[in-house]
Structures are given as C-alpha cells and as structure tokens.
C-alpha cells in the first residue's frame, strides 16, 4: 500500500513512547497500578448490578452520572468536611478525564495554568494537549511556594499580562514528590485564587492512603468562595480498572463540564458497582488493606535505596504511591532510567514530570505494583545500572 501523507494535528505529530508503555520482562517500579494480590473481589456487586439494575446499567447513563453514586460520594466527602449536593458532582472516566473537562470549560489555547515543578506527568500531557502555557512554581517541604507565586502574579498584573485561569496541584502525598502541603499554604492558595481570579484544581487520589501523621483539611473543605474544583477517583482506593472518578464544583461549572463530554456518559454498570461498594463496609476495609500494604512497600523501597543507591536523596512520604529521588548533580536521570531497563528494572525519569526546564537528575518510583522482595531486587538492579552510568560519564 502506498504511503499516505496524513495531515496530523500538532498534538499528535510526534509519535513517541507513552508513559503507559512498559518494557517486557522487567521489574516495573514506574507505574502507580494497584498491587494485584489485593485487588478487590467485586463479583457480588457486579452480579447485583447486572441482575437488579439491568435497565439502568445496560443503557446510556445520565450525563452527570448516576444520582445514587453522586449521593454516596457527597456523603463520603462530607466525612472530610466537604459540603456539596449531588448537583455539584459529575462522574468522569477517572480523575484525568475530570481535569480534561475542566480545561475544556475554562481554557483556550495559549491560556496560562499554574503547576508545581515537578508535577504529575500524565496530567502534564493532558494540559499540553490544550496548548496551555505553564506557570511553573517551586516546592519545599510545605508544598507549593505560595510566596513565589504571589510575587509572580503581582508582576504579571503590574505588566498587564494575562493572568492564569487555573492552578493544578496534588496537595496530599504529591505525585511525584510525596510532599503534603501545609495548612498555611492551602489557605494562601485560596486567598490568591480570590485575589487573582483563578480556579484551583485539587487532585486528591491518595488522600485516604495515609501511613502516619495527621490529616490536613482539603483545600475544597476550606473553600468558601467556590474557587476550588475537587477531583477524586476510586483508582487508588479501590481499583483503577473501574475507571470511575468525579469532580466537585459549583453546579454552574458542573453543568458546563457535562456538556463537554463526548462519550455519552460514563459507564453506568461500573458506576452502580462502585455505588454498591460505597454503601457497604467493603470500601473502608479495602482502604485499610491498601494503606497497610503500601506502607510495607514504601518501607521496603526506602530501605533498598539506602543500601543499593545511597547517593540518591529520597523524601519519605507519609502516604500515597510514589517516591522521588534526587541524584547527584550531573548524573542524568534519563541515562540511569535507560540503563536500568537493560538490567531488567523500569523506573521513571524525572524529566517527564517537569513542565518547563528539567534539572536532569531526578528519578520517579512507584512502590505500589510489586511486592517488597521484588522491590528490593529491582532497586539492587538499579544500583548496578547507576554505577555503570557514573563510570561511563
């Protein structure tokens, strides 16, 4: 067949490797997937959904999502201090779908969005597909540097530059750094959102997977002006394959998000399954199991890194799925990640997480997918790969 000169859009002109592609036959320490041995048995909920709710689950679903699911989510987040009605909730195909819908509602190509540097890499892909300009903010142990952000916003205003429309962040057990934003910084963000007119997308998939320490109120629970869109998902607390997420926002925003859907509505079958789980004790029990398991995995990875890659600086997260490692200056994260695959282990290069300039010497790990013994072996292999890269440089 003769080659066709397709006229691709800019967003798809470059055909690269997806972050969801993984090398065959390697230990995978790069993906935040669920740990297979603890995936929940939802067969009874699925059977009940198919039998008792057949006329509901085998049709197109309501564009906002099943009312019953939105009601149980409203009750669920009320335990975290978030007050909302079902009309202020929209069901999505995972959390990133909700973020994409927010971008469709608020942004045009060239608009600005505030993000941390680094930030969640697949959300960066989503934001880039909307041709947004990044306002990249540094972090410290308390989260996004709101003092730096305030100075930057004031400078933009003084120079009559267009101000950002959105801010995206993961305040609890940040992906990839593991940082949890302090209460003072959360309050600062709300003040700045009100003063400078941007909307905060609070992505919080890991909030309930806390290993130690005290929970800090979510930004949404502190919001009195309607400037926060809370994005949630069952991907980390139940099962990612269900593809059920949600956004909580004022009803005016939620309705506009619904009209941007192109999928006929999220799957009512999996929505009904999730609603049934929420109404039982199974969700709380499963979150407890995930938390206990991920704590063991985190500890195994930190211990292995201390033994096999002591040159890396690693922050110990109080929850979540991810570790962030800083290599010595001049050591390429790209080179170490590439060499690691040759030694049978896959880790993430930090480059994928930076919206603009990449410092070059970071690695991103997930400890969620494989058991502690395999984690240890993977880090041992990584240590060998690291030594080869350093020796060759």
Number of domains: 2
CATH class of the largest domain: Alpha Beta
> pLDDT under 50 segments (min length 5)?
none
Rounded mean pLDDT is: 95
Percent of residues in helices comes to: 40-55%
> What is the 3D shape?
globular
The helix-and-strand class reads alpha/beta
Rg result: 21 Å
At CATH level 3, the topology of the largest domain is Aspartate Aminotransferase, domain 2
Strand order, largest beta sheet = 2-10-9-8-7-3-4
The second-level CATH architecture of the largest domain is 3-Layer(aba) Sandwich
The major pleated sheet works out as:
7 strands, mixed
Termini gap? 45 Å
CATH homologous superfamily title of the largest domain: Type I PLP-dependent aspartate aminotransferase-like (Major domain)
Strand content: 5-15%
List SSEs in N-to-C order.
Answer: HEHHHEHEHEEEHEHEHEEHHHEEHEEEH
Brief write-up:
The chain has helices at residues 10-13, 43-52, 54-57, 67-78, 95-106, 121-129, 146-158, 183-196, 219-222, 251-259, 268-278, 282-308, 333-342, 372-392; strands at residues 27-28, 89-92, 112-116, 133-137, 139-140, 143-144, 166-169, 199-203, 228-233, 245-248, 313-314, 322-326, 345-346, 348-349, 362-366. It has 393 residues and is α/β, with parallel strands linked by helices.
Key words describing this protein structure:
14% strand, 393 residues, 41% helix, Aspartate Aminotransferase, domain 2, alpha/beta, four-stranded antiparallel sheet, 2 domains, seven-stranded mixed sheet, 14 helices, Aspartate Aminotransferase, domain 1
Describe the structure.
The chain is 41% helix and 14% strand. A hairpin with a 2-residue loop joins strand 5 and strand 6. The chain has helices spanning 10-13, 43-52, 54-57, 67-78, 95-106, 121-129, 146-158, 183-196, 219-222, 251-259, 268-278, 282-308, 333-342, 372-392, and strands spanning 27-28, 89-92, 112-116, 133-137, 139-140, 143-144, 166-169, 199-203, 228-233, 245-248, 313-314, 322-326, 345-346, 348-349, 362-366. The longest helix has 27 residues, at 282-308. It has 2 domains: 10-39 and 284-392, Aspartate Aminotransferase, domain 1, CATH 3.90.1150; 52-280, Aspartate Aminotransferase, domain 2. It is α/β, with parallel strands linked by helices. It starts with 9 loop residues before the first helix and ends with a helix. It is built from 14 helices and 15 strands. Strands 2-10-9-8-7-3-4 form a 7-stranded mixed β-sheet, sandwiched between helices.
């Amino acid at each position: 067949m003769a080659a066709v000169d397709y006229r691709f859009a800019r967003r798809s002109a470059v055909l690269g490797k997806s972050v969801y592609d993984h090398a065959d036959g390697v230990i995978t320490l790069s993906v935040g997937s669920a740990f297979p041995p603890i995936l929940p048995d939802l067969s009874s909920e699925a059977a009940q959904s198919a039998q008792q709710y057949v006329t509901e689950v085998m049709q197109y679903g309501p564009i906002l999502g099943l009312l019953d699911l939105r009601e149980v989510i409203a009750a669920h987040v009320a335990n975290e201090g978030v007050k909302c009605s079902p009309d202020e909730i929209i069901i999505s195909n995972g959390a990133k779908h909700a973020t994409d819908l927010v971008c469709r509602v608020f942004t045009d190509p060239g608009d600005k969005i505030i993000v941390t540097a680094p930030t969640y890499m697949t959300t960066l892909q989503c934001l880039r597909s909307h041709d947004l300009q990044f306002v990249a903010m540094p972090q410290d142990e308390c989260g996004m540097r709101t003092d730096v952000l305030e100075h930057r916003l004031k400078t933009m205003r003084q120079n009559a530059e267009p101000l950002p429309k959105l801010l995206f962040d993961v305040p609890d057990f940040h992906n990839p750094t593991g940082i949890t934003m302090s209460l003072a910084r959360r309050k600062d963000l709300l003040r700045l959102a009100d003063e400078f007119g941007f909307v905060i997308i609070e992505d919080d998939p890991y909030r309930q997977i806390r290993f130690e320490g005290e929970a800090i109120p979510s930004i949404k629970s502190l919001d009195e002006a309607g400037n926060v869109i809370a994005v949630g998902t069952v991907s980390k607390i139940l099962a990612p394959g269900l593809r059920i997420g949600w956004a909580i926002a004022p009803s005016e925003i939620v309705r506009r998000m619904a009209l941007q859907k192109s999928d006929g509505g999220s799957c009512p079958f999996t929505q009904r399954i999730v609603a049934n789980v929420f109404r039982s004790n199974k969700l709380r029990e499963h979150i407890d199991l995930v938390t206990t398991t991920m704590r063991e995995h985190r500890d195994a990875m930190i211990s292995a890194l201390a033994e096999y890659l002591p040159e890396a600086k690693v922050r110990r997260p109080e929850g979540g799925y991810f570790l962030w490692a800083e290599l010595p200056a001049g050591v390429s994260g790209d080179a170490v990640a590439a060499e690691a695959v040759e030694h049978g282990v896959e880790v993430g290069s930090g480059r994928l997480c930076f919206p603009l300039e990449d410092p070059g010497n970071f690695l991103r790990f997930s400890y969620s997918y494989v058991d502690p013994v395999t984690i240890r072996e993977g880090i041992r292999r990584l240590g060998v790969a690291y030594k080869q890269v350093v020796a060759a440089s």
